[in-house]
């Protein structure tokens, strides 16, 4: 008999749950809270999470489509969020095998540069088209997204942690 590990086996992800959380993150981003430069991008957080955990189901194409939807909503330069989300997803899929070895806190440190790169990409595109610099508080958004990573990990993996048919003879 194998010794019990502190890691729990996860059930397969329900595709409906995965896509519902992505659409839910998009809807949360659409809430009109005004122009807050330090506001974390929940769509980017959800995309990176599912790119790391389900890279075959959520890929660069989904990131591009969600990016276009964000561009239309924000009346931003068409392709600004799409490019940022596409790059973010590509690099998240690139590191997905390595990142899963770490605890959620250490994973947050690994995804922080991805979030910074996505925000810098959007900022550079905005500045290249003549927009004004939004201010230094915008540098807090990637930090807030990385700080939300452990909470997002816990919340989005809850449905996979439940036992499908628990009993005293099968503790998994």
Explain briefly what this protein structure is.
By secondary structure, this protein is mostly helical. The chain has one domain.
Description:
It is found in: Cell membrane. This is Rod shape-determining protein MreD. It holds the Pfam family MreD. One of its GO terms (cellular component) is plasma membrane. Belongs to the MreD family. This protein has 7 helices and no strands. The chain has about 170 residues and is an all-alpha fold. The protein has one domain (about 40-160). The chain is elongated and about 65 Å long.
Topology diagram in text:
Blueprint: H1 15-29, H2 42-53, H3 60-74, H4 80-94, H5 96-99, H6 104-128, H7 140-161
Helix pairs in contact: 1-2, 2-4, 2-7, 3-4, 4-6, 6-7
Please state the average pLDDT score. 88
Beta strands, count: 0
Main beta-sheet strand count, sense and barrel state: none
Shape: elongated
Order of helices and strands: HHHHHHH
């Amino acid at each position: 008999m194998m010794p019990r590990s502190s890691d729990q086996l996860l059930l397969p992800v329900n595709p409906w749950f995965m896509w519902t959380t992505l659409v839910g993150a998009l809807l949360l981003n659409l809430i009109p809270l005004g122009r807050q430069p330090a506001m974390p991008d929940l769509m980017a957080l959800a995309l990176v999470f599912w790119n790391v955990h389900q890279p075959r189901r959520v890929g660069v194409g989904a990131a591009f489509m969600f990016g276009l939807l964000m561009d239309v909503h924000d009346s931003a330069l068409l392709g600004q969020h799409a490019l940022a989300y596409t790059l973010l997803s590509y690099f998240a899929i690139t590191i997905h095998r390595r990142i899963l070895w770490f605890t959620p806190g250490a994973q947050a440190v690994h995804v922080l540069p991805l979030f910074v790169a996505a925000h810098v990409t959007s900022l550079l595109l905005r500045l290249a088209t003549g927009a004004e610099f939004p201010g230094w508080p915008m540098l807090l958004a990637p930090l807030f997204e990385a700080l939300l990573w452990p909470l997002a990990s816990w919340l989005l993996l809850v449905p996979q942690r439940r036992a499908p048919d628990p009993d005293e003879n099968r503790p998994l």
